[in-house]
Amino acid sequence: MSQRRFPHHSIIQINTNTTENLFDWFQAYPINIQNQNQVQFSTSFSLQVLDFIKPFLQNFYPGRIQKNETTNQQNTKNNFNELLNNMTLQKPQFLTEFIYQNTPNIQLTNISHNYLLLTLRDILSNFITVLFTKLNYKKIFHSHYFLPPHSISKCFQIAIILPVYIFFLHNKYKTINYTKFSEDLDLKPIQMTLHFSTIFNDTNSLSIKIKNDTKYNIYITFDISTKNFLKTFYIPSFKTYRTPFDKWFPKFFNSYQKQFTHINEQKVYNFIKYQIITFLTIELKKLLPISYSFPKINSLQERTTASIKASLHHIYTCTNDECNILPQNTPHTFHNLTSFYFQNSFKFSPIFSNYIYPNLDFSIFKQHQSSAATFTKPFPFKTLKQFAQIAEQQFIQLNSISTNSKRESFFYYTYIKYYLNLAAKNDNINNSNLKNTLQKTFTKTTDPHTFAQIMAYFDIIQFSNTPISELQFKYY
Question: Does 362 lie in the same domain as 308?
């Protein structure tokens, strides 16, 4: 911005148009070593004064025409006398309290406007003098005392008017080097600061509390269920906290954006969201055991859950770039790791190892048998269910125990898996690629049952954790 665009020069005498003779404020009023750490006002009175004058100064330009000239009235221009008068008319609380403290017997109705004006003039003179001679005024201008809730341009306008007002009070006539003052002051918006805290509990609750202060400190408190996390090792998605966050954010952003000329609301939203997710992830990982061992497993569902937990534990804790737990060139994805742990879980925790199992006869599904497995006919859910029920009854008789629906599901799932594998073998299906298999099959048939069974087959052998009920639903 050029010197010419700052209008205070129109009421302050200028001896020359060259920038060399413009008043260098920071050179004339340097921040000395003694003032380096003086960045706070000593009393709340000073803060009251600053908060009071900022709204008056943010749009005050000395010499700017207020009203256009008419036939009966000349132009009205902004001037400090009028500014001081307008401030006095507000009768701020700090001003009347100051007068009462120093003149105890005086009544408000007896205080003349002129007395109020002269008192306010002295207060402002002392305040501005102390600011520029006793304090680190540059840091104060960069602090929360000065910046919020105005934009940087408005804050700079306030900052430049204060030294000009000094000249007015002392009847001095100097033109401050506007450009140099702007460069030396180098005002920047106050950036938000996030503060996190965590409350761990043994209940099922999971919540977040979020608030901020006028300094744009954001305080985020998580109420985390240790019990829930250790049960699954799942880190909740941001959706869990979205409702309270979305309720808080608009009000915060409405205040925060006032500092900026241009600011992208979505980027601010995403930044805070990312910080929340990152902190939550770090906090939850602290709860993880050093190692994870497969527990005693009594059902397919428990085996699936344990495999998922083993996979998540590995993802969260493995820091070895050359980890070789999976076959070479196999990506360490959640899917691949879960499949690996599921397949190896039978070594770690065999199902019902203390019981006697019935012999399951899968030969009936072989080629040329009456119930030969094939993708060319509807899937025999009902038949396989009956086989599973028979196996469960045999298991009950062999072990003299009561029935268990989870165990029956295990037998059912076992029959389904064997049936699909034998169907693939009987129909010469290449199980390496679902897309190629479907394309090859399409040249032979368009029967929907065939395609549904092929997709179910790939779903099973690639281990998608799909329950049988959902598998049936998807199939139909």
Answer: no
